[in-house]
Amino acid sequence: MPSHTPLVEGIDLTDPASFSDGIPHPAFAAMRDADGLSWVPGNDEFDGFWNVTRHADVVTVSRDTDTYSSAAGHIQMYDIDEDALEARASMIDMDPPIHTRLRRLVSAAFTPRHVQSYQEDIRTRVNKALDDLEAAGGGEWMDLVAKPIPIGVICDILGVPQEDGDYMIELSDHLVAGTSSEQLPADAYGNTTDLRLLPFGSPAAHGVNEYARDLADRRRNDPGDDLVTKLLEAEVDGEKLTEAEFSRFFQLMIFAGNETTRSSMGHLALNMAEFPTEFDRVRADPSLVPTATEEVIRYSSSILYFRRTATRDCELNGTEIAAGEKIVMWYAAANFDPQVFDNPQRFDAGRPTPPANVAFGGGGAHFCLGASLARLEIAILIEELVRRDLRIEVVDDPVYVDSNFVNGLESVKVRVV
Ligand code: HEM
Question: From ligand 1's centre to the CA of 223, what distance in Å?
Fold first, then answer.
């Protein structure tokens, strides 16, 4: 973290504390309104970066992987050494064509059509969570509802035994903590690897690697009808994935399939409490579930940003960008761009789509692999909440995850009414 605070529009975007009450809307609005892109100056520890906050610019950057690379630098705002970049890289840190070849290995499991086959399993999980919530009359929404559903679903898809779900949540939580001011001891989970070389700079990544190695051994001896078995059997250019490539794939899927959807489900409780009449509309007309789902996803913007690095001198919205400079795409700002979303601060359960929000990215090669799955999980949760006629009151201030990368929630205490 930087030794002094580079402020843009009165906010230090490099500091997780700037996000401790959620998305900093006034600062993002000022950045969107200013000419061109705003620049966060660097210092001794931190190179500066451009902020992309308008919807159209996020779409442009996302779709031009030749100019705005995911492989040329880190995809988070801080820099890491070349050897660390190489050691940590999964497909999200790569450019086409290698990215395309890797993504093809897993894409069939996440097509809109294929995810429909998970519907029954998701509904069972949702109803179990809501039974627990109702029986308790409320409680910690994150523990009772938002956490168990996404991790259970992704564990099933990967072939991780359900009893290991809590351990996966624990590891995934620590990976996020690697982006915040909270740090685990370097030797946690028996880690002996230089933290620089681990995803999120976190020893929890070592824990995930060890778990992935062990699961791979089990699946080689006892193959299943799951994604881990498919990954172990798959070939890229005639070669199987190396142990390290497999572990990084596994790590990406566990983190991405769990943390993000859980955050959006946490925000759903806040939305229901804050905008009850919008959910009355869905109750009266369940055909609004798809647009309400999209609105929860836009409103939560559970990944705040991803970064690209310019491969050549270029120009974006009147700003000259030099080759090698960093560009941070703030999805959380673009999703409230009034040029695209009418009265963006209003939660509108019937908001028309298109225009699409960019919570899953602005399109192009890296567009979220799990978008259809996340949408289905959130839609089924809304459907069942509405069908049961449950109303949610939030009884304490929500506690946000200490991060400037995810808009996560640690605690949302609710009462069911
Ligand atoms: C509300 C939930 C979710 C949100 C907001 C979200 C958001 C994102 C974003 C912003 C990206 C990067 C897009 C880009 O760089 O253009 C991404 C990529 C990705 N997401 Fe999601 N995601 C969610 C759920 C999921 C789920 C359930 C999975 C399960 C597999 C998943 C798997 C991935 C993967 C593997 C990538 C990397 C894709 C690539 O590099 O080709 N995500 N997601």
Answer: 27
Q: Is residue 11 part of a domain?
A: no
Cis bond before residue 112 (omega within 30° of 0): no
Nearest to 92 by CA among 333, 303, 280: 303
Atom of ligand 1 nearest to the CA of 301: 5
CA dihedral in degrees (400, 355, 106, 200; nearest 10)? -30
> What residue numbers bound the domain in which 158 lies?
16-416
Answer yes or no: is 26 within a domain.
Answer: yes
Domain count, the chain: 1
Tell me, yes or no, whether 52 lies in a domain.
Answer: yes
- CATH number of the domain to which 247 belongs: 1.10.630.10
Predicted confidence (pLDDT) per residue in 376-399, tens digit: 999 999 999 999 999 999 999 999
- Say how many Å lie between the CA of residue 103 and the centre of ligand 1: 12
For ligand 1, the distance from its centroid to the CA atom of residue 261, given in whole angstroms, is 10
Regions in the chain scoring below 50 on pLDDT: 1-3
- Write the single-letter amino acid at 192: T
- The pLDDT of residue 86 is 84
For residue 258, give Cα distances in angstroms to 43, 53, 282, 374, 389: 34, 26, 26, 9, 27
- Report the pLDDT value the prediction gives residue 178, as an integer from 0 to 100: 59
User: Cβ atoms within 10 A of the Cβ of 122, count?
Assistant: 23
Residues enclosing ligand 1, CB less than 6 A? 62, 91-92, 103, 110, 154, 252-253, 256-257, 260-261, 264, 297, 302-303, 306, 331, 359-361, 366-370, 373-374
Residue 10 within any structural domain of the chain: no
CA atoms within 13 A on the CB side of 334: 30
